[in-house]
Structure formats: structure tokens, C-alpha cells
Known about the structure:
This protein has 264 residues and is mostly helical. It has a single domain (54-263), classed as MetI-like (MetI-like fold, Orthogonal Bundle), CATH 1.10.3720. 79% of the residues lie in helices and 0% in strands. The chain contains 13 helices and no strands. The mean pLDDT is 88.
Amino acid sequence: MRGISxxxxxxxxxxxxxxLILIIPILYILVYGYTSFYIGSVAFSxxxxxxxxxxxxxxxxxxxxxxxxxxPLAYYLARHKNPFIETLVDIPASVPHPVVGxxxxxxxxxxxxxxxxxYDHGIIFYYTYTxxxxxxxxxxxxxxxxxxxNYFESLPQSYxxxxxxxxxxxxxxxxxxxxxxxxxxxxxxxxxxIARAISEFGSVVLIAPYVTGWIFNGMSTASVFIYDEFLTYxxxxxxxxxxxxxxxxxxxxxxxIINIILFK
Length: 264
């Protein structure tokens, strides 16, 4: 027993140091971004805070759309294993994300029938909120679906089996029995998907390097804003990155607190 306990202690220490390795670059950014590389005019500038606000806003909208339309898919996959559909869901998360941006640009181009139809009806992806939210939706939805699939698989099936035995259809069982019990999972999976959307760069920098119109006119998402700072003034990108990390840590903390409250 003592030998087993000792091995577990070693594993615990090893796990701590391995996880620490992952966050060393982040710690460097935080420390240097607010010390020797600190630039006060950038750290909490209106432009940076607006880009972070745009990022959180568009990511939240994208994930709300995923919740509304793709929660039923997550439930279906949890109850009916379908490798083909699961592969289709995983594709957006497995391809390089600039491919998603290029695909959206081509999809909305008048050189193809669908793009011509969209263009003729005033539906434009390039430099618009539509394109930005659509890109974030595509890259974050697989994360949401997989998280909800795992949550549905963890739920005991006794209630839904009872409803089905009384003659309720699978869809009605989903609406009346499953959804009310899945609110905790939806919130948790939704916050995880939002965190993924916030970190997106590859597709966004191609389809919507900045957006036009409405509240955030001319603004970029935080990832694109920091990239632009990097191209023009490296020190500014360090400070801006540190500020974005602070907001990301805040989201992680809120997610952890909500998970503790929901699943205690």
C-alpha cells in the first residue's frame, strides 16, 4: 500500500510540473507584458478593449446559435452511435482554420451558384458580422457538440425510457424530458465553446479582419488586433496579449465557478 501511495505521489508531482510547462509562455507574457514591456497607452486602450468586447460578443452569438440548432445533434449522437456523422462534425475542428476562412470567402463569391445567390440577396460574409460569426460558429460548434454528447451519455436513461414506454416519440422525449435536465450541461459546454471561439484567428483574419457597421464599426477581433500590433510594434503586442490573457483567465474562472455551482 505504501508503494502504491508513493507512486501516486510521484505521479501527482509529475502532473503538476507537466501542466506548469504548458503555461510557462503565458506566464512570461503576463509578467513581461505588465513590467519591462508595459505600454500604458495599449494595455487598456479603447481600441483593445473594443476588440475584446467584439470577440466576446461575436463568440457568444456564435455559440448561442450552436446551442439552439446543434443540441439535438449532440443528443442523437449520444444515443445512436454514428461514425459517419461524428466524422462530419469533427472535420471543421481537424482542418487548418485558414481553410475555413477561404471556404467562406469562396462560398460567398459570385463565381459559384450559391455565392451568386447570396450576393444578389445582399448576404455578404467578407468584412461583416455575418462572416465573423459564421467563422466562429463553424470552429466552435464541434467543441460544443462533443461536450454535450459526453454530457448526454453521462445522464441516466431511466426517465427517457419511461417516457418512451408511455408512447412518447424520441423527439418529444428530448423536448420534454431531456432538455430540462440538460441546462447545466448546456451552460458548461457553451462556456467551453465560447472559450474556443475567443481564441480563433486563422479563419477570422481571412473572412473578417475587421467588421463594418453597427457598434464595432472598423474593429478587429482581439486575436487579429494583437497580430496587427505584432506586425507594427512588438512591445505593444506583448502588453495587448497580457490584457487578453487577463480577460481569458476571467472567463475560465467564471466557467470553473459555474461548473462547481452546477455540479456540486
